[in-house]
Structures are given as structure tokens and as C-alpha cells.
Amino acid sequence: EFGFVGPKGASAVLECNRSTYEIYDLVGKAGSYSFRGRNGGKFWKVEADNTITLLGDAPLDFHIEFRGHSVMCIVAPNGQYIKAAQNGGFTVTGGNAISSSTLWEY
Question: What is the C-alpha to C-alpha distance for residues 74 and 70, in angstroms, rounded to an integer?
């Protein structure tokens, strides 16, 4: 609903509502997945404020729930959905309720 996901400027903080896309490697392991950036090979990391950055040295286990022909929800290690916001927010504050802000197109 809110554009592509990518780093905010020169920072490692990820945000949505971007006009251009980034490519991430999806690394699978026994039913869970981690996301790795192509530049530098860092993984998605959930910070204390629930933002997601590209600062992880080790993979985190995310789960993917397919919800339609081309949409999915991403469940973070804390059990909450990744949520998009119109202002670019890309956080793990979506709770466990599916909404348009927790659905991601692929």
C-alpha cells in the first residue's frame, strides 16, 4: 500500500513509501526466513524502538504468511506483524491483526 522498502537516506533504518525498490536475499531455515541486504551483507535487525535496520550481523527468524495470490504478511521474531505507515514507518508494531498496513505485495 505504501511503496517499496529501502534504507532511509544514508542510514541503515528501513522505511517504506519509497519510489524505488531494493533487492534483499531471502535465506530460509526450517520454516523461517531472514532478510539480507545485498550491500554489505547485513541482515534485518529489530531495534529496541521496533524499527527495522540493516545492521544485523546474524540472521533473525521471520515467518511469512501467504494471504492471497500476491500478498503476504511478515511476522517478526517478537510475534507481531511488520507494519507500514504512510509517513514511511516500517516497524514491528502490527500486532497480530491483519490489515492493509500489514499486507505486503510480492
Answer: 13
- The mean of the pLDDT values for the chain is 93
Q: pTM score, two decimals? A: 0.90
CA-based end-to-end distance of the chain: 12
The DSSP symbol for 2 reads -
Work out whether strand 63-66 and strand 90-91 pair parallel, antiparallel, or are unpaired.
unpaired
Q: pLDDT value at position 10?
A: 81
Note every long-range contact of 96-103, with CB atoms under 8 Å and residues 24 or more positions apart, other chains counting. Answer: 98/67, 98/73, 100/1, 101/1, 101/2, 102/73, 103/1, 103/67, 103/68, 103/71, 103/72, 103/73
Q: Are strands 32-37 and 24-29 parallel, antiparallel or unpaired?
A: antiparallel
Q: What one-character DSSP code corresponds to residue 47? A: -
